[in-house]
Design brief:
The protein has four helices and 13 strands. The protein has 255 residues and is α+β, with helices and mostly antiparallel strands. It has a single domain, classed as Lipoprotein localisation LolA/LolB/LppX (outer membrane lipoprotein receptor (LolB), chain A, Clam), CATH 2.50.20. It has a 13-stranded antiparallel β-sheet with strand order 6-5-4-3-2-1-13-12-11-10-9-8-7, with helices on one face. A hairpin with a 5-residue loop joins strand 11 and strand 12. The longest helix is centred in the N-terminal third of the chain and has 21 residues. The protein is globular and about 55 Å long.
């Protein structure tokens, strides 16, 4: 109702202005119109430009799977890490940390993890909140791609430096904030919350070293992750393969 009232007032004001102009004597000097203010882009317009910057819908739709190999550096130790994604089916990250294999897996139906350092030496189902927070990773193109079709909504929170600040709320009420460069429209930072030892922790991921693949899809080859200032890790991808044949069975939780 408030928007309708404001709209009526705006039309009424415009009609009055036209009426006053028509009543101005011919001998009076014409008024100089002020330049129209440049309206800020909407959240949806910014997201659309971001999608175009990473290749556009045509390029993204051609990517059915992604396989990446690289290194994860934490506490001065460099560890081999892989990521396997089949679009809409599953996401799996495996890291060999000083001889201990840590696995995290999400599918369209649930998730599981193995982390002996956290007391999970065998495959353990992910709690619902952890699954909901990470399941967007099974979709190629990122959380903002096709967000409305997935039941999400976006909001422009303003600007931070040279970046637009976009808030995404998923259909599961998971909230994340993205910084999108206002020149390149590439994602520079993602901010969210995660559980660590039962406590909410602010997680900040910075993305850099974007490279265009043969299909035109852009991928960030470098990431820096900060967990509430308690510790940080960096990831550098050294090998990326698109549309590699991947058996969906790799996402099945071991018995």
């Amino acid at each position: 109702m408030k928007n309708i009232i404001l709209g009526i007032l705006a039309v009424s004001a415009l009609a009055s202005a036209v009426s006053l102009s028509a009543q101005t004597p011919a001998s009076a000097p014409a008024a100089v119109s002020a330049p129209a203010p440049v309206s800020a882009p909407t959240a949806d317009e910014i997201v659309s430009k971001h999608v175009a910057a990473i290749g556009g819908k045509d390029a993204i739709s051609q990517v059915k799977s992604v396989y990446m190999e690289g290194s994860l550096t934490m506490m001065g130790s460099e560890n081999p890490s892989t990521v396997t994604i089949v679009n809409g089916v599953g996401f799996k990250n495996e890291t060999d940390f000083n001889g201990t294999k840590i696995v995290q897996c999400y599918t369209d139906k649930g998730g599981w993890f193995i982390n002996p350092m956290a007391g999970a030496a065998t495959a353990t189902p992910l709690p619902d909140d952890a699954y909901n927070a990470g399941k967007a990773q099974i979709n190629i193109g990122g959380a903002l791609y096709d967000y409305a079709a997935k039941g999400g909504k976006v909001e422009l929170l303003g600007k931070e430096g040279n970046a637009y600040k976009i808030k995404l709320t998923t259909k599961d009420s998971v909230e994340s904030v993205f910084l999108i460069d206002s020149t390149s429209y590439l994602l520079t930072t993602e901010m969210s919350k995660a559980k660590m030892q039962g406590q909410d922790v602010d997680v900040t991921i910075n993305f850099s070293d974007y490279r265009k693949t043969d299909l035109g899809y852009m991928i960030a080859y470098a990431m820096n992750e900060s967990f509430g200032g308690q510790f940080e890790l960096t990831i550098a991808w050294k090998k990326v393969e698109l549309n590699k044949t991947i058996d969906p069975a790799v996402f099945a939780m071991p018995k």
